[in-house]
């Protein structure tokens, strides 16, 4: 790679009491790529993306975005910097509408009296924007933008979460297990959305246990093992069973040692 990574982590450490979830972990995401992050249960994948998206503060190490050192202390900081993350839990309010969920925490407000803190929400503008974004991403099955999120199917909810991330993630979109618990058709749609985001030039980090999905969409695969990056492979160079063998420690890629 001749380009510089857009998002880079070096020597990241995160401890939870006696558990070391991240053990001097390195990470590189390059512009315009879909980077899958795979690893066994408990390998530290979620801890890694939480550190990159401000949900946890690493105990050690350095993160840079476009070459600038960043010190996120919350996901709000990361969002302000253009990094959007869809966590496994989706972080949506089921009783609120699709439009309200898309704007949660960054509501548009009507112009008010100068200096007024009590500016009214600009509902029409938010609905218009939400509709435009969902249409742009081909989520035409959602008829009513005012529909409560709790009335949507799992796939539609995931679609709204991905649409929200894609709409506001100007620099990086992170998706933690976006196809887990989805049916075949719904998973397909989410994979298409992921490709769609990439085609708009936004790089994506995809955490997934689903090897066929990973091998289908990823440009590169970061294999995470025991709290650190074991290696990065190209899906064209290895089989799915190789990847699983690497992440479980059954075998190592050529030239890689476990201590690396
Ligand atoms: N909030 C927490 N408190 C205590 N331990 C934690 C916490 N979060 C993660 N851990 C521990 O850190 C380690 C790494 O967890 P993490 O969730 O990052 O792994 P993962 O690779 O995402 O796992 P999975 O694939 O099962 O989701 C695990 O041993 C886990 O139990």
Automatic annotation (TrEMBL):
PROSITE patterns named among the record's database cross-references: ABC_TRANSPORTER_2 (PS50893)
Q: Which InterPro entries match?
A: AAA+_ATPase, ABC_carbohydrate_import_ATPase, ABC_transporter-like_ATP-bd, P-loop_NTPase
Q: What are the GO MF terms of this UniProt record?
A: ATP binding; ATP hydrolysis activity
SUPFAM superfamilies in UniProt: P-loop containing nucleoside triphosphate hydrolases
Domain annotation ABC transporter: ranges: 7-251
Q: Which UniProt keywords apply?
A: ATP-binding, Nucleotide-binding
Against Gene3D superfamilies, the record matches this protein to: P-loop containing nucleotide triphosphate hydrolases
Q: What is this protein called?
A: ATP-binding cassette domain-containing protein
Native species of this protein? Answer: Gemmobacter fulvus
Classification from the root reads: Bacteria, Pseudomonadati, Pseudomonadota, Alphaproteobacteria, Rhodobacterales
């Amino acid at each position: 790679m001749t380009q510089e990574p857009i998002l880079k982590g070096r020597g990241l450490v995160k401890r939870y009491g006696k558990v070391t979830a991240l053990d001097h972990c390195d990470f590189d995401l390059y512009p315009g790529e879909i980077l899958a992050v795979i690893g066994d249960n408990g390998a530290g994948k979620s801890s890694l993306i939480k550190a990159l998206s401000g949900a946890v503060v690493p105990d050690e190490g350095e993160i840079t975005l476009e070459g600038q050192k960043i010190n996120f202390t919350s996901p709000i900081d990361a969002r302000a910097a253009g990094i959007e993350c869809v966590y496994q839990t989706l972080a949506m309010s089921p009783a609120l509408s699709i439009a309200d969920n898309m704007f949660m925490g960054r509501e548009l407000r009507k112009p008010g009296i100068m200096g007024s803190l009590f500016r009214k929400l600009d509902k029409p503008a938010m609905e218009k924007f939400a509709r435009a974004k969902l249409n742009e991403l081909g989520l035409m099955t959602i008829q009513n933008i005012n529909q409560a999120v709790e009335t949507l199917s799992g796939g539609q909810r995931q679609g709204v979460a991905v649409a929200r991330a894609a709409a506001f993630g100007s620099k990086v979109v992170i998706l933690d297990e976006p196809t887990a618990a989805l049916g075949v058709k719904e998973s397909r749609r989410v994979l298409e959305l992921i490709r769609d985001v990439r085609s708009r030039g936004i790089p994506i980090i995809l955490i997934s246990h689903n090897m066929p999905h990973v091998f289908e969409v990823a440009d590169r695969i970061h294999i995470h093992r025991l709290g650190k990056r074991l290696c990065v492979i190209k899906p064209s160079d290895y089989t799915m069973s190789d990847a699983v063998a690497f992440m479980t420690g059954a075998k190592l890629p050529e030239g890689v040692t476990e201590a690396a």
